[in-house]
# Entry
Amino acid sequence: MQQIILSDYEQIPVLQDAAIPAPKDGEVLVRIAAAALNPLDIKLQRGQVHAYFPLSFPSAMGTDLAGTIEKTGSLTSRWRTGDRVMARLDPTKGGALADYAIVPEDQLALVPEELDFNSAAGLPTAAGTAWQALVEMADLQAGQTVLVHAGTGGVGSFAIQFARGFGARVIATTSGNGVEIARELGADQVIDYRSEDFTLKVSDIDVVLDTIGGETQQRSFDVLRSGGKLLSTVSPPDQALATAHKAEGAFVFHTSNARRLSDLVKAMGAKGHSVLIDGQFPITSFAEAFDRQASGRARGKIILSF
# Structure
């Protein structure tokens, strides 16, 4: 088979031949139909998250995949050959950017027949992070107001839809053609950060989902109501600032969870949510896809097909 390999931090990932692995007890071999890139892949390649996800080289790349089960290991009871599945792999091991991957059976979620593999591959990290933040950490309720920064990014595009599905009012920041895209996703109000200061446009926000960090994160405390929550996928919020604003601040450290993935897929189907795809590339065009992800300008997910 072929897979994307990283030889060392800051090196260019390359497509190489590799042996097809065999599943062990409690594992399955998935024939991958599609995989998705995430900002985490760029951070891993640059060595920026070594403290959280140390890599051993050569390192197989990729976490998010969708495909069919090719083979099951012994003592594997949950799945059968041919089942349509998706999963998020351990970032320290990777392996999603390949023709085949080994996945522990308890990390798999079923892909419904009505969901294509390209869309399914875009769900595990980005949709999972948005769900973890809004449902599990914020306990978002109908009638509340949510501010989603980078509303047309991978996480943000799901957060807008989930929040609207829960009955919340949604405000999103983005720029350029992202303004119209955010509206189409369901945002009630869209702020073009290039020409508008969000702190002058909104106030009394219940929940801020920060996917940008830095100054944007710090200034977001100014728009929270007393008792509001700022959740960041980038870096731990300043607790002194949180206390000064009588608000809560928390870091969203995304963890793989097959049940969460199954729950959000059901919710998406029930609410008619969709996966915003920026571009689809064959695995042979990985370099182009990787550059697009690294640019930070992608609208939604970047998908690689096999």
Remarks:
- The mean pLDDT is 97.
- The two ends are 11 Å apart (CA to CA).
- The longest helix spans residues 258-271.
- DSSP finds ten helices and 16 strands in the chain.
